[in-house]
């Protein structure tokens, strides 16, 4: 068996994992629904083993529950847990932006400025899908710029869980516009190598996200 042969199943499983996770986060696989492995195999054009490996990873992250002889059930969102998630995210976010401000490459800093401009343009167009895509790219490049593999993995899961909440419950255009302003401030602070400003702006972003989350919980549970 060649190195390529050994790597291929893992790569297919990674692709399946990312694709299924995205289907859940964006609501195309709804909470409370059963996942059809056969449909996923056809949709993703891969075999049973990569699908099952991907579902096991998603189980560990809380996106699905595995039921013997029944299959995988997409979990519903407990919106009250978003506040717990934000408690975990806040210190991670500050660590991330401080490290990114110190360690980002020139290319990454240029890309961050570009993302800030694209984010503002998406808000002006009221293009929700583009906004959420750029937001994901923002989280990824900020994490990558830290060059800390453990932080990248940990905060990546936190960001994904947060994104699922926003897809499902945040619909007001004003909320996206205000969040974009905070994200842009963080991006530009990192790009300018200003760790203190990046941390300050990240703190303001987290304060905003907590306020919106509390307002959403009150509205949904009222």
Question: Can you give a write-up of this model?
Answer:
The chain contains 9 helices and 3 strands; from the N terminus they run H-E-H-H-E-E-H-H-H-H-H-H. The protein folds into 2 domains: 72 residues, Winged helix-like DNA-binding domain superfamily/Winged helix DNA-binding domain (Arc Repressor Mutant, subunit A, Orthogonal Bundle); 141 residues, GntR ligand-binding domain-like (Four Helix Bundle (Hemerythrin (Met), subunit A)), CATH 1.20.120. By secondary structure, the protein is mostly helical. The N terminus is likely disordered. Strand 2 and strand 3 form a beta hairpin. It has a 3-stranded antiparallel β-sheet. The longest helix is centred in the last third of the chain and has 27 residues.
